[in-house]
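Project outcomes to date are best conveyed with an example. Our students and postdoctoral researchers have been running inverse folding experiments weekly, and each run begins with a structure described purely in C-alpha cells. The record below, which covers 107 residues, was selected by the lab manager from last quarter's runs and is presented without edits.
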C-alpha cells in the first residue's frame, strides 16, 4: 500500500510532509508534490502533516480522484526528489479549497 497526493495539493504545494518522510519518497513539480509508490513505506507520518488534507492512503482515495494514484506514480519517475520543506507559493491559501484544480497542474 502507498499514500497518494491528491488534487488539493495543486497550486498549494505545502511541503510540511517532506520533513517527516523517512524514505524521501516525495517528488516535486512546479506546483504539485507526488509520492513515489515504490519508495513509500506506508508509515503514515506524512498524512497528518498536510495542512490541507491532500494526502491519503490509496485505500481512502475519494471517488473521482482514483486517477491520482497513477499520476503520482507517473510523475514520481519524472520529477526530482524533494528532501526538505520549502515555503509554499505566495498565493497558496487562495487555492486551498478551489475545486477541479487538475487543469492547473504544471508538468
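After processing, the design step wrote out the following sequence:
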Amino acid at each position: 500500500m502507498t499514500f497518494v497526493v491528491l488534487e488539493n495539493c495543486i497550486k498549494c504545494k505545502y511541503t510540511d510532509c517532506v520533513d517527516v518522510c523517512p524514505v524521501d519518497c516525495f517528488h516535486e513539480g512546479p506546483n504539485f508534490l507526488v509520492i513515489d509508490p515504490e519508495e513509500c513505506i506506508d508509515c503514515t507520518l506524512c498524512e497528518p502533516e498536510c495542512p490541507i488534507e491532500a494526502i491519503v492512503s490509496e485505500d481512502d482515495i475519494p471517488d473521482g480522484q482514483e486517477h491520482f494514484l497513477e499520476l503520482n506514480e507517473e510523475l514520481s519517475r519524472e520529477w526530482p526528489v524533494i528532501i526538505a520543506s520549502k515555503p509554499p507559493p505566495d498565493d497558496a491559501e487562495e487555492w486551498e479549497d478551489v475545486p477541479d484544480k487538475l487543469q492547473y497542474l504544471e508538468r
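The first strand starts at residue 3 and ends at 5. The mean pLDDT is 97. The training component of this project remains on track.
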